[in-house]
Design a protein that fits this description.
Elements (H helix, E strand, L loop, with lengths): L20 H8 L3 E5 L2 E4 L1 H20 L3 E2 L5 E3 H5 L3 H4 L5 E4 L5 E4 L4 H11 L8 E10 L14 E11 L2 H21 L5 E4 L10 E7 L5 E6 L5 E3 L18 E16 L1 H5 L3 E3 L5 E3 L1 E8 H11 L1 E2 L2 E2 L10 E5 L5 H16 L4 E3 L6 H11 L3 E5 L1 H5 L2 E6 L5 E5 L3 H10 L1
Parallel strand pairs: 3-7, 19-20, 19-21
Antiparallel strand pairs: 1-2, 4-6, 5-6, 7-8, 8-16, 9-10, 10-13, 11-12, 11-13, 13-16, 14-15, 17-18, 21-22, 22-23
Helix pairs in contact: 1-8, 2-6, 2-8
The structure holds adenosine-5'-triphosphate, magnesium ion (MG) and zinc ion.
Length: 419
Amino acid sequence: MFWSKYFIPTLKETPVGTEAVSHQLSLRAGLVNMLTSGVYSYLPLGLRVLKRIEAIIREEMNAAGAHELFLPVLQPIELWKTTGRDKTLAEIMITFEDKKGRTLCLGPTHEEVITDLVKNYVQSYRQLPVTLYQIQTKFRDELRTRYGIVRACEFIMKDAYSFDRDIEGLKKNYQLMYDAYVRIFKRCGLNVIIAEADSGAMGGDVSHEFLVPAAIGEDAVVKCLSCDFGGAVKSNQAQGDACPKCKSGKLAKQVAIELGHVFQLGLKYSSAQQALFLDEDGKQKPIVMGCYGIGVSRLIAAVIETNNDANGIIWPKEVAPFDVEILPLQVSDQESLELTKQYYRDLEKAGFSVLIDDRDESAGRKFNDADLIGIPFRITIGKRTLKEGKVEVKNRRTGETLTIAKDEAIKQLIASLRN
Ligand SMILES: Nc1ncnc2c1ncn2[C@@H]1O[C@H](COP(=O)(O)OP(=O)(O)OP(=O)(O)O)[C@@H](O)[C@H]1O
Ligand SMILES: [Mg+2]
Ligand SMILES: [Zn+2]
């Protein structure tokens, strides 16, 4: 991809009215654009990141045996009345009347819709278990939209739902999703804390939240300074207490962003919506359900929030919009251009994506933009170093810059990209 023909509207200044680093950088790097409060467009670079995160999620969901489908955004309010959530979620639900006089809502979540769907197809224990998921836009009339895409009114969620005969089956599926979540967040370069959520009003239902410590977090967590222990703050825990796991480490209290939530729903929806199946013993029973959500668009913000420096974003390898940026300093120099194109072909052939900053801009401007958009590796091709047969390769994360023989550069770079 050539930058001069692409659409990356970077901004030099920090936009006014933005507090969160991730909000500032996602605007400055040309990833997203605000249409109105809580409503965002994804620009080409932001969309590339989104697609890579979605690909990781799909891979892990499919590997865990879940099947992708796509449910409607438009949902009849009658469906929500069957569970009473037309009232309990009224505050955040966006509802309206269509020209035929139907009251519809824009789905804030999909438990009712999927339960309704599954109940129409599943009659026998032989059809269970099944886990279904989608990656979909959700709509919530959030009272306080905050930090850009962290809390928006229109956002992207991966939501999965499991359907089982019994609690044992649910527990197995729950564990599969839990393990998939651990892998997803790790691959996205995030160090999550998993907090057991209170069973609360549901009574006995198990639930875990996946959180990332960050200054803009809204949930309190504790983290051990010595081992990998972390969790929700228990009422008797204080800063500096001994770690319950390793015993020697001290606990630090932090705030964290919620990125994912897994929940053993049990019979809540299947009972209310009469989603029943005929079991092996000839008895009709409600299906045992679980639900599993990840805030996909919020995840982008969390990655930026935890991977940046004063100069910009530092993308983890697996979610970066491009793997390598090639930066020819003199775009009219024939030799530089030929080498750029050769590198581009070699890298693409090896399966890596490349952005070429071919703009006729000052070196300073191009370096600043490269740091801002945060591609993991940058190759700088300059006339002077090229005379000595060399190019520069910079690692965005470590800041390490190596001057390498031009014929060796790609081989070395591919090795770094692969490890
Ligand atoms: N307004 C929002 N904007 C962006 N992402 C969101 C928003 N609300 C929820 N999410 C994401 O969707 C995931 C699953 O949704 P869920 O209904 O469990 O969220 P929630 O408990 O309402 O989250 P929160 O407490 O942050 O409002 C959350 O873990 C979060 O990552
Ligand atoms: Mg909420
Ligand atoms: Zn510890």
